[in-house]
């Protein structure tokens, strides 16, 4: 008897995971195109009206969104460049009003170190992590609500050290992992880092 022919549909069908991956990728491609259009429009607007601070904040948000999009579609170098622009545009806002912008700015600088690592820019990642530590201490000195930020910064530094071959970073990582939720006020960023670390194979810094 002739062997049964497998239908084209079955031969070419995608697994649930493959379908999900393609939909996920397509979503970020679509978002990237939307944000790129916004970027071009907003950059042109800023050229015409360079003192419009509200539009500068909007443009910083666009750069931040683009960094995320490019990271997810597999372009770490472009993600890194976009996050550099995010920091550039958000720095004046932070310097003018540090306490209200503190958490947002801290997260933006943190993300720059992550994107730099993915792009193979380890020197930039290292210097950015040092900036993050200084920023954490500054914020803690300005407002007690930021008391957990130095621990978050040292956690980031420790994981980077481990991932780049310096085993001394393990002590910093272990200290952060012993932290109990709610021990310090406003520990959202720290707890997010701990959860992210545990959910991704004990790594904050990773290539994917």
| Run of helices and strands | HHHHHHHHH
Largest sheet: none
Number of strands: 0
Return residue spans where pLDDT drops below 50 for at least 5 consecutive residues: 1-16
Roughly what fraction of the amino acids lie in strands? under 5%
Instruction: Give the helix/strand class.
Output: mainly alpha
What does this protein structure show overall?
- With 208 residues, this protein is mostly helical.
- It contains 9 helices and no strands.
- Helix content is 75%, strand content 0%.
- Helix 7 crosses helix 8 (169-177).
What's the topology here?
Elements: H1 8-12, H2 16-48, H3 53-72, H4 76-96, H5 98-118, H6 122-142, H7 149-163, H8 169-177, H9 188-199
Helix pairs in contact: 2-3, 3-4, 4-5, 5-6, 6-7, 7-8
From the structure above, extract its key features:
disordered N terminus, mainly alpha, 75% helix, 208 residues
Short note summarizing the structure:
Helix content is 75%, strand content 0%. With 208 residues, the chain is an all-alpha fold.
